Amino acid sequence: MESNNKFFNDFWPYFGGYFKNELDTSKEVDFVLSHLENKSMTILDLFCGYGRHSYQLAMRGYSILGIDKCNSYFLELQKINKMFPNFEFKIDDFLTLNIKSSYDCVLLLFGSFGYYGKSNDLNVLKMIFSVLNDGGIFIFDTRSFEQVKTSFVGINELIHGGIKITQSGSLNSITKEIKVKWVATIDNIKTDTYTTIITLYSLNEMKAMLSSVGFKELYLYDDYTKESLCLEPKKRCIWICKK
Ligand SMILES: C[S@@+](CC[C@H](N)C(=O)[O-])C[C@H]1O[C@@H](n2cnc3c(N)ncnc32)[C@H](O)[C@@H]1O
Q1: 164, CA 20 to 30 Å: which among 11, 63, 80, 185?
Q2: How far is Cα 105 from Cα 208, in angstroms, rounded to an integer?
Q3: What's the half-sphere exposure (Cβ side, CA atoms, 13 Å) at 212?
Q4: Structural domain of residue 155, as residue ranges?
Q5: Which atom of ligand 1 is nearest to the CA of 97?
Q6: Using one digit for the tens of pLDDT, what is the confidence trace for 150-202?
Q7: Same domain? 151 vs 41
Q8: Whether residue 227 is found in the same domain as residue 124
Q9: Both 103 and 209 in a single domain?
């Protein structure tokens, strides 16, 4: 969707870092590593953004490919690649990319799902399944329709380093689409306005989609502490799936 593309090209590269700091990222990486058996496992960091997970995983010796379609991340990702040759990256659209290698683990972290409408979202999962080795692990962090519905407030504000980011959104309970308008205000001057449209899935829908693609042994966590393996997560849905 065009509005999502504009958001990821022009907004997320500059402001995405305000939503997650290094400490959050290292907790997420510790969680990921607790599901991997050994250092020889290869990882695909799908929709890697500016590579915050890839950076920490590469530093710990894992071989990783990061994929993101957003050109604005090129310099950041190139910097990681120069420091750690075990990190490679592609700036490309995963939906049209022909990936020849397969991986022991695929990561799809921090709300990187629901951008393409129902049938293409399902295709994303199918493509992930096809690039995983047998027995490979898919770690998928998203939020369910139920979670967003109960916690969604019309307007959210985040102030960081003199920059105010305002999110205002609406949730259509029939289509399960959430439309969010994002505005960054710097020194009281409004920068551009961006819109994201994301399709949400209920817990049961998500479970059915993952199973229909072929994933098994589905575990569901509430957050990255790994303490709350649960059936009805309150905060996030972190799925651990096996091919
Ligand atoms: C919410 S960000 C998450 C980034 C990263 N995983 C993190 O946790 O910081 C979602 C990312 O998905 C990327 N993306 C969306 N659709 C994509 C596609 N079809 N191919 C490659 N990247 C895509 C966007 O460019 C954006 O950087």
Answers
A1: 80
A2: 21
A3: 12
A4: 147-198
A5: 20
A6: 877 677 888 877 788 888 888 998 999 999 898 888 777 777 788 999 999 99
A7: no
A8: yes
A9: yes
The ligand 1 atom at the shortest distance from the C-alpha of residue 111 is: 1
Which of 23-27, 69-73, 130-134, 230-234 is predicted with the least confidence, judged by mean pLDDT?
Answer: 230-234
Tally of domains within the chain: 2
- Beta-carbon contacts of 32 under 8 Å, excluding residues fewer than 6 positions away, are 53, 57, 105, 107, 139
Q: Are residues 111 and 34 both part of a single domain?
A: yes
Q: What is the pLDDT of residue 6?
A: 83
Q: The whole model's pTM is what?
A: 0.93
Return the CATH number at 122. Answer: 3.40.50.150
Q: Is the CB of 69 under 6 A from ligand 1?
A: yes
Which residue minimizes the CA distance to atom 6 of ligand 1? Answer: 48
**Cα-to-centroid distance, 25 and ligand 1 (Å):** 16
Summarised one tens digit per residue, pLDDT across range 5-48 is 888 888 887 777 777 788 889 999 999 999 998 889 999 999 99
Residues 156, 177, single domain; the answer is yes
Question: Among 6, 7, 8, 120, which residue has the most ligand 1 atoms within 8 Å of its CB, making it the best to mutate?
Answer: 8
Pair (12, 130) in one structural domain: yes
**Cα–Cα distance between 11 and 6 in angstroms, integer?**
8
Q: How far apart, in whole angstroms, are the C-alpha atoms of residue 107 and residue 45?
A: 5
Same domain, 86 and 178: no
State the closest ligand 1 atom to the C-alpha of 52, by its place in the atom list counted from 1.
Answer: 9
